[in-house]
Write a structure and sequence with these properties.
- The chain is mainly beta and about 190 residues long.
- It contains 2 helices and 11 strands; from the N terminus they run H-H-E-E-E-E-E-E-E-E-E-E-E.
- It folds into 2 domains: about 50 residues, no CATH class; about 120 residues, Lipocalin (Beta Barrel).
- About 15% of the residues lie in helices and about 40% in strands.
- Strands 1, 2, 3, 4, 5, 6, 7, 8, 9, 10 and 11 form an 11-stranded antiparallel sheet that branches.
- A hairpin with an 8-residue loop joins strand 5 and strand 6.
- The relative contact order is 0.17.
């Protein structure tokens, strides 16, 4: 998932500003237990999210799952795209391109870059989403444009994505148009 440079710069500035103010949960200097008042300390990601929302930046409502490092051996996907281009397919899990490592997940169905329908479910950098393609047509949806539900167990990642309106793009003609994406997937390690 790539963010516009302005969004990244804004988030970095907000993070620096928060860090320079000191942590609201750092009470070790005065000997107080931060959890003593019944409130758990907030982590930096949540502070960044709150600051971004306060600054008017779009942030996802969905909770971003934590997925342990793993590779994926078995899986399925039902992929439907309609609008500017159409896909109704069940591409096979690409076991060589599907991995979770160091907090980032790529689960690939079909072969990326080939003409046949393919899709990649991604999680990382505080967001998750789907990239779909067929032939020279591509579209990407994230938690900003899509409703995403996921279930993560020690051996399986599954979910449903519903993106009512994302922009599709033709790499051949450079034309753009709206597509709707519906995905059900499962991948087991």
């Amino acid at each position: 998932m790539r963010y516009p440079p302005l969004l990244l710069v804004s988030l970095a500035a907000i993070g620096i500003a928060l860090a320079s103010c000191g942590s609201s949960t750092d009470s070790s200097a005065d000997g107080e237990d931060p959890a003593a008042d019944g409130k758990a300390p907030q982590d930096e990601a949540e502070l960044m999210r709150q600051a971004a929302i306060a600054a008017g930046l779009p942030m996802p409502d969905e909770e971003i799952p934590v997925i342990s490092d793993r590779t994926y051996k078995v899986g399925y996907m039902n992929l439907k795209v309609s609008g500017f281009f159409d896909i109704n397919a069940s591409p096979a899990l690409d076991t060589m391109a599907s991995i979770t490592s160091d907090g980032s997940t790529w689960i690939q169905y079909g072969k990326s870059g080939e003409a046949a329908p393919n899709a990649t479910f991604t999680v990382g950098n505080g967001d998750m989403g789907i990239g779909v393609a067929v032939g020279r047509f591509v579209a990407t949806g994230t938690t900003i444009e899509c409703e995403i539900t996921t279930e993560v167990t020690p051996t399986k990642v599954s979910g449903h994505l519903s993106c009512p309106k994302v922009t599709g793009y033709s790499q051949e003609t450079r034309a753009m148009g709206d597509v709707k994406i519906e995905v059900d997937f499962e991948a087991t390690s």
